[in-house]
């Protein structure tokens, strides 16, 4: 189960995720954090996946549904510090081009400007 914390930096809501992004045990973690940010009026959200060491099909669903929820509200969701293993899974699932990714938090925050 992933540990999820949320913070704000320069108008960007950053959701830090640590651990495996796997089946139902993650929810309401990431989804809940994204939903709460949206309900609070956030439109720029970055998921910091630097601490995610594993991603399975349920984790892919969490990312895809979070992306859809943010897009449906007119917002933008970006990924930060995606580890090579996670990037590989996203590529296999053909989601590598769906998400805008940034190597660092600084780059991601700046990209929202």
Biggest sheet overview: 5 strands, mixed
How many angstroms separate the termini? 33 Å
| Global mean pLDDT | 92
Strand runs, count: 5
Give the spatial strand order of the biggest sheet: 1-2-3-4-5
Low-confidence stretches: none
Listing every helix as H and every strand as E from the N terminus to the C terminus, the arrangement reads EEHEHEHEH
Shape: globular
Structural class: alpha/beta
Number of helices: 4
Radius of gyration: 12 Å
- Portion of residues within helices: 25-40%
List the helices and strands and how they pair.
Layout: E1 3-9, E2 12-21, H1 29-39, E3 44-55, H2 57-72, E4 76-80, H3 84-92, E5 100-102, H4 105-111
Parallel strand pairs: 2-3, 3-4, 4-5
Antiparallel strand pairs: 1-2
Helix pairs in contact: 1-2
């Amino acid at each position: 189960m992933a540990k999820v914390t949320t913070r704000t930096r320069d108008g960007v809501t950053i959701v830090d995720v640590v651990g495996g992004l796997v089946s139902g045990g993650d929810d309401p973690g990431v989804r809940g954090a994204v939903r709460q940010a949206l309900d609070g009026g956030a439109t720029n959200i970055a998921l910091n996946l630097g601490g995610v060491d594993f991603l399975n099909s349920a984790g892919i669903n969490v990312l895809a549904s979070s992306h859809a929820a943010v897009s449906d509200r007119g917002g933008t969701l970006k990924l930060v510090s995606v580890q090579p293993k996670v990037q590989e899974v996203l590529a296999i699932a053909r989601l590598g081009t769906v998400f805008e990714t940034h190597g660092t938090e600084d780059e991601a925050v700046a990209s929202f400007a």
